[in-house]
Amino acid sequence: MIQVFVTGGTFDKEYNYITGQLFFKDTHLPSMFERGRSTLEVDVKTLMMVDSLEMREEDREIIAFNCRRSLHDKILVTHGTDRLVETASYLAQSGIKDKTVVLTGAMIPYAFGTSSDGFFNLGSALAFVQVLTPGIYVVMNGRFFPWDNVRKNKKTGFFEELNG
Amino acid sequence: MIQVFVTGGTFDKEYNYITGQLFFKDTHLPSMFERGRSTLEVDVKTLMMVDSLEMREEDREIIAFNCRRSLHDKILVTHGTDRLVETASYLAQSGIKDKTVVLTGAMIPYAFGTSSDGFFNLGSALAFVQVLTPGIYVVMNGRFFPWDNVRKNKKTGFFEELNG
Amino acid sequence: MIQVFVTGGTFDKEYNYITGQLFFKDTHLPSMFERGRSTLEVDVKTLMMVDSLEMREEDREIIAFNCRRSLHDKILVTHGTDRLVETASYLAQSGIKDKTVVLTGAMIPYAFGTSSDGFFNLGSALAFVQVLTPGIYVVMNGRFFPWDNVRKNKKTGFFEELNG
Amino acid sequence: MIQVFVTGGTFDKEYNYITGQLFFKDTHLPSMFERGRSTLEVDVKTLMMVDSLEMREEDREIIAFNCRRSLHDKILVTHGTDRLVETASYLAQSGIKDKTVVLTGAMIPYAFGTSSDGFFNLGSALAFVQVLTPGIYVVMNGRFFPWDNVRKNKKTGFFEELNG
């Protein structure tokens, strides 16, 4: 059983055609699992629906608390990409023991159809969470990064190693 | 560096609007890597473009030969799902040493847009090939299966363990 | 009020991922009207779900009967493209009076996402049926054709005038 | 020959995955004509790429000038929906003679895939411009409206008659 925690981010944003703004409605995760024809047992819980630029320490503590409390030792967290590394770092120092926690996100909302990277990222994050040893990881761009050796390049939008 | 071998299958099929039949043109793999914003180094080679129902022993030997000959020890093979397990089994007995070979496919062509499972499968297959120990694996439905413990359920289209 | 008769054709085909064949389930018309944000009053009736290559004279008579019987004088018929002109010709000789009947179809199934012409064809067919004078018309490729001056070019898939 | 003038609007907006903002790159009109398999002769010119909320009188004069100067008497203008009616009204009072001018837009960007209404609107606008008598019209929601009997309902996003 894989525990999935939804926290929002670009991954789950929608376009509001009245205001022209992006916003959150429900998560797309369940329909993505169905479309991916996944036969993994998953327990999906939406903890919050926020843009990672607006994520505060109390939000991060909610994520950490739920990771500690979860009965499952494989945990996938969807998250906005701008502060994804900060949350990974927070989780690494919050007393989560013997669990593999993978954080992933998307650069283009899943709802925007065939241009989004989200479905690919979900596939790779689910795979990595099943086989990586306990620890906190970021999964983006087809790769996994230990939490303490990754940054988002603000110019290109790619995730890269600190010494890359 | 990940070696990618394309062999066809539903994954890469297109709809011919003149005849109403499915057919092969070029592989979608490169554009899928771009859309997935993958920063993995990959070497993509199209070995053939065939429906797996029409795949013969000489086709399988071409795949095996190229797996043995590849300079890379992480190999991803895209393949039709109907005979994917047979090819995995062939590869397991063809003298490939110290390499991780992952076979994946799709139930719905990538070209058919937001209904296809292909992009998700590519994400998970790429992840698994990076971290699984040497051997021959099938990746479908978000999971990996060792080549000798998997079958395709012809009724549901899902892959499952032999003793499942 | 616009009367819409669904008869099948490529327009409404789906991909069966078990058999790899195309088949019919429900029509996509209602969800297409919603996505197009249409505020037209429409009455959608599915008369049959057949490939136009398999359409027989009794099927055409069902369409003609329903066109004659409809209380509305603006009628849109979705139809397979291969025999669309034959059905238009049949309708023209079946005693439909003082009604504008527009037949349209698609070269690529609507279900195949961003490659399909179906949504564009629906938009133009709905527009033409509102403003053309009574008669039987074929709408494809952004244009309308009177029933007795159109053929489908089997090589290109485009509809063209007989003297074109 | 149909003259097409592109002015921007939601129709042609893209998502910038670095900033999370919508922006303009190139128009999608040519690829939309191709996907719609249109065989109409069209002359597509991009006059500007602006959000209609930022459209000023000098922009409207550019559109009017080009409508007057065009050698063609069937003109399609793509435009943001928020001020589409204002531009239609401006054009009606700018000395365009014996020409059918149709303005259309989209509530959801065409680039956002299978949720956008843009492709449907393009199909209906192209149809209406071919058959309506000279004048200035707004085409949205599957319908045409004379310029002086239409408003955008800001709450629902639907276009409706003034006396509706």
Query: Spans of chain A of 5+ residues with little confidence (pLDDT < 50)?
Result: none
The biggest chain-chain interface is:
A-B, 37 and 37 residues
Instruction: Give the tally of structural domains of chain A.
Output: 1
Widest beta sheet: strand line-up of chain A: 4-1-5-6-7-8
CATH superfamily of chain A: L-asparaginase, N-terminal domain
Quaternary structure of the protein: homotetramer
Q: Please write the CATH class name of chain A.
A: Alpha Beta
Q: Helical content of chain A, roughly?
A: 25-40%
Classify the beta-strand content of chain A into a percent band. 25-35%
Which sequence of SSEs, written as H and E, runs from N to C of chain A?
EEEHEHEHEHEEEE
In round numbers, the mean pLDDT of chain A is: 97
Count of individual beta strands of chain A? 10
Report Rg of chain A. Answer: 15 Å
Distance between the termini of chain A: 34 Å
Structural class of chain A: alpha/beta
What does this structure look like?
Four copies of one chain form a homotetramer. The first copy, chain A, is an alpha/beta fold. Helices cover 26% and strands 28% of the residues of chain A. Chain A has one domain: L-asparaginase, N-terminal domain (Rossmann fold), CATH 3.40.50. The first copy, chain A, is built from four helices and ten strands. Chain A is globular and about 45 Å long. In chain A, strands 4-1-5-6-7-8 form a six-stranded mixed beta sheet, with helices on both faces. Chains in contact: A-B, A-D, B-C, C-D. At the A-B interface, α1, α4 and β10 of A face α1, α4 and β10 of B.
